Amino acid sequence: MSQTLAERRKKLPRWQSANRRPIDRAFIRAFVGSWNQNDNHEDVVMTARRLHALGAAIVTGAGFALSADHLDAQRWPEKPVHIVVPFAPGGGTDIQARLLGAVFHEHVGRTFIVENRAGASGLIGADLAAASPPDGYTILFSTASLTVNKTLFGSRMKTDPVRDLAPISWISSTPLVLVVHPSVPAKSVIELVALAKRRPGFLNAGINNPGSTNHLAAEMLKQTALVEATLVPYKGGGPGIVALMSGEIDFQFATGPVATSALKAGKVRALAVTTARKASAFPELPTMNTFFPGFEADNWYAMWFPAGTPAEIVASMNALILKALKAEKVRGFMMKEGLDPVGSTPAELGAQVKRETAKYAAVIKKGNIRLQ
């Protein structure tokens, strides 16, 4: 007489039968076919148990992978971290990167290596960083130019700052300063606008490379104040401020450090800053948005990881940045250079990128600005 399934179970070795979870017939039916009295029940049960074991192994493997990622994030950084600066050595981005890298090293004991990958208005370095493994060992340190390039280059820009980069933190901000030659009969923004309206196209405004933030600031003035001015391009802030001091042009929106040196020499007169709030480096100057609400065009700096970097590593780097920005040597340097240390959450930087991209896109399209 054939034995029942229960009797067969009793004869199984203890390691097979003790504390076993009952096998659901629906589970068995789904994987090994219909249940009937003629089935070899022992084979069915053993098959089901193997399937259970396989499922448990898969779940355990997935859990192990997640645990490994978590442990990697906890141990980060275990090796040198590369900071990609998409501009030439010696500029504002490069200098800040090297200073912050040294402070990061003091805090975590790992080297932060600055790599300058200049070219194509910052696109080369951005593409390199975005294509790097999302493991926390490559950081992009760039500027507001990322939000401008999105519209200027269109499909030629491979890296989408929203899609391909994970925001870490806003680092610093420097105002653009509206400065005029001393011979210009305007001692305020209102007087400069009135002068431009009386003589349309007579005033010459110096700009850096087409598409630069100071170019877009000049274009914003034209669009918001409804004035005409002739835009004269120069190869950078240095040549532009020299032209202004010599009287070759009438006004420009100069970066904080460039404006500071010219003001100290008494060669230009400052009228306003382009930041949302008064700039600590120029506390006596009003903001442009005092006269034209929404007029904000500061040059800001920020850090990103490649998209897909574990959230724990992003959070660790964010905390490291916020700590570094409080360091006396960092604050002292930024104050001297006309920079305001900012710091932010990743979400705040992400929102800033979207907001700035939309703002500059509107200015570029309305001004019909095109790269030659």
3D structure, described in words:
There is one protein chain. With 372 residues, the chain is an alpha/beta fold. It has three domains: 70 residues, no CATH class; 164 residues, D-Maltodextrin-Binding Protein, domain 2; 115 residues, D-Maltodextrin-Binding Protein, domain 2 (3-Layer(aba) Sandwich), CATH 3.40.190. Helix content is 47%, strand content 16%. It has 14 helices and eleven strands. The strands form two sheets. Strands 2-1-3-10-4-11 form a six-stranded mixed sheet, sandwiched between helices. α9 links the parallel β6 and β7. α3 packs across α4, α7 packs across α14 and α9 crosses α14. The radius of gyration is 31 Å and the shape is globular.
Quick structural summary:
This protein has 372 residues and is an alpha/beta fold. It has helices spanning 5-11, 14-17, 25-32, 41-75, 92-108, 123-130, 145-153, 189-198, 213-225, 237-246, 256-264, 311-324, 328-336, 346-366; strands at residues 81-85, 112-116, 138-143, 165-174, 176-180, 204-207, 230-233, 251-255, 269-273, 299-306, 340-341.
Please report which band the strand proportion falls in: under 5%, 5-15%, 15-25%, 25-35%, 35-45% or over 45%.
15-25%
Q: Characterize the main sheet.
A: 6 strands, mixed
- Would you identify the CATH H-level superfamily of the largest domain? Bordetella uptake gene, domain 1
Based on DSSP secondary structure assignment, what is the total number of beta strands?
A: 11
Q: In the CATH hierarchy, what is the architecture of the largest domain at level 2?
A: 3-Layer(aba) Sandwich
Write out the strand line-up for the largest beta sheet, numbering strands in chain order. 2-1-3-10-4-11
Number of helices: 14
CATH topology annotation of the largest domain: D-Maltodextrin-Binding Protein, domain 2
Order of helices and strands: HHHHEHEHEHEEHEHEHEHEEHHEH
- The class by helix and strand makeup works out as alpha/beta
Alpha-carbon distance between the two ends: 94 Å
| pLDDT averaged residue by residue | 84
The value of Rg in angstroms is 31 Å
Q: Low-confidence segments, ≥5 residues, pLDDT <50?
A: 8-39
Identify the overall geometry.
Answer: globular
Q: Helix fraction?
A: 40-55%
